[in-house]
Specification:
alpha+beta, Trna Endonuclease, Chain: A, domain 1, 2 domains, 6-stranded mixed β-sheet, 29% helix, globular
């Protein structure tokens, strides 16, 4: 009887995800035009896809993807930005950057899609789990605030009015000094 050689099992080749390259461009981050950039947009709706195939990310979205090791950002001189350098640059542009980032990170970690909401007069809009922008409307608009900040009744009423007029619920995301977020949902009621 002839002996057959056993084939050695080869280690499985795991397909490593390529880290997306991006450039810090003023108040946003622009990625390279790549399949990976298109994939994170298609799957999780990060940023907005531009006609040239590049993905435009908000500063909080970019930091979140950097922390998840999915994005590598450089400045316009091609110098690599680490997370601390990115945060310093972002805080110069957006004084409330860290508070906004804490809310975006917390909501993303909870499995929701969160997008900017400047056209609604709010910081963010949040979609129900499993709902992507374009499939249905956002459920909430979110205003991130630090626990030590104050607001007037007029400002509070204006935020509530914006939520009501856009048929969304109002979430106030209160961020403490440790970066933890507590949410309060506010809605109109009729007596």
């Amino acid at each position: 009887m002839a002996k057959t050689k056993k084939k050695k099992s080869e280690p499985k080749k795991t397909k490593r995800k390529k880290i997306i390259k991006a450039v810090f461009a003023k108040e946003r981050v622009l990625t390279e035009a790549s399949n990976e950039a298109r994939e994170i947009y298609d799957q999780s709706r990060y940023g907005s896809m531009l006609e040239n195939g590049k993905l435009q990310l908000s500063l909080p979205e970019a930091l979140y993807l950097m922390e998840k090791k999915k994005l590598k950002v450089t400045d316009y001189r091609k110098n690599k930005l680490n997370i601390d350098a990115f945060i310093r640059k972002a805080q110069k542009i957006e004084p409330n950057f860290w508070i906004r980032y804490c809310v975006l990170k917390d909501i993303r970690n909870r499995g929701y899609i969160i997008k900017t909401a400047l056209k609604f007069g709010a910081d963010f809009r949040v979609y129900n789990r499993g709902v992507k922008p374009g499939e249905d409307h956002a459920r909430w608009i979110v205003y991130p605030v630090h626990e030590s900040s104050t607001t007037t009744w007029y400002e509070f009423a204006a935020k509530n009015r914006v939520a009501h007029s856009t048929k969304k619920r109002l979430l106030i995301g209160i961020v403490d000094d440790e970066g933890d977020v507590t949410y309060y949902e506010i809605k109109w009621t009729r007596p």
